[in-house]
């Protein structure tokens, strides 16, 4: 029995009725990247593409780029099959009218393929996905071109959301005790990091006369995802 997550425009509408005849635990949430911050841990994700192929393709590409570490299956109608191409970045596709045996087989095979992948840690918060294994970061699917120290600064702040750190603390944690530069270095790196975050620069907050913190909204929480 697996834990399945369905992204769908209407969580009350059964995107794949055959799932109701199987023993898997199923959670349905609205189809948007922001909802993943609060999503439960899952073994496999399904995306309901029955009614909006263009929007579903864009969301699949965002999820693929974010490399969330679980397989992704698209649910579509018979007529929508022709629109699903390799550039969607999904692991499989299933027709919404598929029977229980076919759906169960696709779920088992997709999860089985991922079980052989070595786990690596990801941090997901406020739309920012940080891959600690590859030293890469993305914001809502867009790759960030970060230097090593910029990545380390972002990773450290995102690992402690809402907690305020002084410049001296950040120097110690990110640059190390043997760093001889001044706290101005922190300000410079924060400014550069915000510039690369673009419209999402607000995730790095300033607390006047104290230091910096990673901002998330009250209804968000940090997720650490293994893949």
TrEMBL record:
Keywords: Activator, DNA-binding, Phosphoprotein, Transcription, Transcription regulation, Two-component regulatory system. InterPro entries: CheY-like_superfamily, GlnR_N, OmpR/PhoB-type_DNA-bd, Sig_transdc_resp-reg_C-effctor, WalR-like, WH-like_DNA-bd_sf. It comes from the Bacteria. Residues 120-216 form the OmpR/PhoB-type domain. GO terms for cellular component: cytosol; protein-DNA complex. Residues 120-216 bind DNA. GO terms for molecular function: phosphorelay response regulator activity; transcription cis-regulatory region binding. Transmembrane segments: none annotated. It holds the Pfam family GlnR_1st. One of its GO terms (biological process) is regulation of DNA-templated transcription. This is GlnR family transcriptional regulator. The lineage of its organism: Bacteria, Bacillati, Actinomycetota, Actinomycetes, Micrococcales.
